[in-house]
Amino acid sequence: MVGKYTENDLRAVLKEISLLEENQALLGWDSLTGMPEDAAPFRAELLSYLAGKSFALQTGTEYADMLTYFEAHPAELSALGQQLVIHERKKYDLNAKIPTADFIEYQKITSLAQDAWTKARAAKDFSIFAPYLAQIITYKKQFISLWDQGSTTPYDVLLDQYEPGLTVAKLDQVFGEVKAGLSELQAQLAHGEAPDNQILSRFVAKQAQSDFSMELAQKLGYSLKKGRLDDTIHPFMEAMNRNDARITTRWDEHDFQMAVLGILHEAGHGLFEQNISPEFDYTPFEKDMAMSIHESQSLFNEVIIGRSEEFWCNEYPLLQAYTGNTFADIDFDTFYRAWMVTKPTLIRTEADPLTYPLHIIIRYEIEKAIFNDDINVADLPALWNAKYAEYLGIEPTNDLVGILQDIHWAGGDFGYFPSYALGHLYAAQFFDAMSKELDLPAIFASKDYTPIYTWRKEHIWQYGASKTPQEILLLASGETLNPKYWLALQTKIYSKVYRLA
Amino acid sequence: MVGKYTENDLRAVLKEISLLEENQALLGWDSLTGMPEDAAPFRAELLSYLAGKSFALQTGTEYADMLTYFEAHPAELSALGQQLVIHERKKYDLNAKIPTADFIEYQKITSLAQDAWTKARAAKDFSIFAPYLAQIITYKKQFISLWDQGSTTPYDVLLDQYEPGLTVAKLDQVFGEVKAGLSELQAQLAHGEAPDNQILSRFVAKQAQSDFSMELAQKLGYSLKKGRLDDTIHPFMEAMNRNDARITTRWDEHDFQMAVLGILHEAGHGLFEQNISPEFDYTPFEKDMAMSIHESQSLFNEVIIGRSEEFWCNEYPLLQAYTGNTFADIDFDTFYRAWMVTKPTLIRTEADPLTYPLHIIIRYEIEKAIFNDDINVADLPALWNAKYAEYLGIEPTNDLVGILQDIHWAGGDFGYFPSYALGHLYAAQFFDAMSKELDLPAIFASKDYTPIYTWRKEHIWQYGASKTPQEILLLASGETLNPKYWLALQTKIYSKVYRLA
């Protein structure tokens, strides 16, 4: 008996979708790095054509029919094939459950909202953006009721889309611990000895920054045979495929820390992409990674390694070698303490790794208030400002440096912010698990980080999106998400830097 | 009454073909400028997918049906629509007239031939390549008989594919005049005073070369809002659309002339693309320009402007300004004479603009011998060497610097070489026509080349591929191809440089 479809049919559709996405990724990368400015309208036309092709493939009735067929005949598929069908069904339903007219209207509103957000920022006035935000929220609540398959709270539905299996109950507990622990640590640091970080503004030429940063990134395993570095205003990593994961950065010759940590960060994303198992080529498992786990790998590079005393005490001489006499008068201790200064900021993207999670917790609590407690949109700025005053001890003087700072809500991206904080927590939990298996002090002393690279490849990267972050974390560390590793690490590090007794 | 197809249907197919070509152009550009080396197999897969899409569109029965319909109902199309149908029919038949099995076999043989050519080059031995070349020629002769619609000679069929309307009879006359005129001029130059070009090997930093060359290119009208410059081993221009025509170059800090003239050359190609009329967007007329007319525009920049005494006598101070004291001791006359040294070479791509056409004439005569006189492939190297000895006064010492230097024949590209020489001749004929309408001495003195830019845009670039080179030439200069303009210009220039009485 011959079935209506074979696994090859499924893989052929997935391959075509992958090829189009690879193509779109390159066009996107090019738009931000190389494209002449007048080419924008032509590029928009081409992207729209390709998006149409891709959309037609993924939402077509033939594809739906194929998924339905295999759901009824799973035995005709390999284990991977079955897993792909489950994964694709979830994606398919996300769009298919929304009436087309509503989807189109919603797209239009998010587009208008992004314009309104820009105008509101110029005027530093949230009320310009508020009516659009209210409409987005109304649609989103309607969609939640369509998507919901028995979640405890409405916001759980959104969380699950970005972080499969994560719940409000779990996040309340996790973020609660983080908030309490951080509050305690910050109270202690206030009595500590704050370092001076003036030396970080010394002139370091762009070329030296680039050479040094790329040497570090490559030592951590980022391959330039499968990547490259370009300049952009907003740094990012874009992967076409596992052999083409490109990073970008920006430069300030009087703030070299920005490029060093920025390059380590993007190279961390690149490492993940470059090391996904080839068995997932041309499947969604090569590209549908949750943002939290992806961010855990960029942050592992940037924060776990890039802020580690053990790492820097061995690599500081390399920085000195790349920068002539610039830091000849600065001993390691002075350098490292400058490197680690922490200070609350109003802007999330300028936050240091210690205060960063607080920015996310504020957004998480507000999103919960929106979807679970139906708070009024007009009341959001006051809530925002009050939480900044309470958690970070500083209060926005206007909406631009307050509630208007992120574009996410204008695009309807609710439930996404927590991933940024999860990345920090996962990275620390991975590091703890790794430290139980590897002789990290010896590895840092050797300056050969191959065992760290190998551990990460084996426990994290190879899986791509074939496992959820929660599954990867459990396999690698033996337990579910536990914020104590992050808190313990930060407490240890900053207590020393701030010379607490 | 409603027709089977409307002009919109035709334009929609043409637009999709154009979008795919634009996309493939960007992938090609990226492969040569930015792509990490390990990405090659993934890129090949993507290109093959897109080529398949494009091929299916252009050779599909629906498209053929559409062309046939409009050939029967031309009145249902605008004038542009009718012209597009004629253009597309010619392209369609080129492939459609060849039996599929033969086409596939031919593709295979050209692929093998290119490998054999590479091996033959390594061994400097034409006989390794000869059997593949013989097979290609056999196929090509068969195809000619299928394509032929009453040409005078078989080789006319090939010429017409690259240069519509051009014939062996015309080229024999044109190239005959060039050969005779050049022979006479070279005999005179042998008695002239050869300049010393040692100063051209003085060190000029890459950045200074780039800044200077790009300033010149932009003065001639190349727009960086619609283009950019990158480094490659083999310089080229690649256009995605009229607002995205990118150029590349290579650098030698002890031979700055290479990059200056190379950038002017590629910017000339870019100028053509950037200035095609928007009415041809998303039609084949934005991209099917004959190589001869395209090359006439790169050569106009490189040779007509880039070797002009009037141009350099005004721009040499700019070069001096960009290069510190490097040429402070060199007066203009010494500089310009060094710039213009001419010397026969064995390699076509290293030839100066005076001897270049001879390389092409040799190839033209050999191709004619192959297709019109059925010469034996085994006899080609001897014929090649004899012609180099006769026309250029130097003889290849092996096949690598002789008949194996060009890849064209390995790809089956016969009839293509003449375009390179036609570019030189057209450029000079355009320049002569322009000089009758513009006050060129005043323009060069002003260093504002806008009138030249405007003339070229109006008489050449705007048409894209909507007119043949012969039509454009006739409209712009009032006569058909006439080599006397090129000969007169070269004679005037080199007689002065070589201080003939």
From TrEMBL, chains A, B:
Its EC number is 3.4.17.19. The keyword Metal-binding applies. Keywords: Carboxypeptidase, Hydrolase, Metal-binding, Metalloprotease, Protease, Zinc. It catalyses: Release of a C-terminal amino acid with broad specificity, except for -Pro. It is an enzyme of class 3 (hydrolase). One of its GO terms (molecular function) is metallocarboxypeptidase activity. The active site is at E266. One of its GO terms (biological process) is proteolysis. Gene3D superfamilies: 1.10.1370.30. CDD domains: M32_Taq. Binds 1 zinc ion per subunit. InterPro entries: Peptidase_M32_Taq. This is Metal-dependent carboxypeptidase. The lineage of its organism: Bacteria, Bacillati, Bacillota, Bacilli, Lactobacillales.
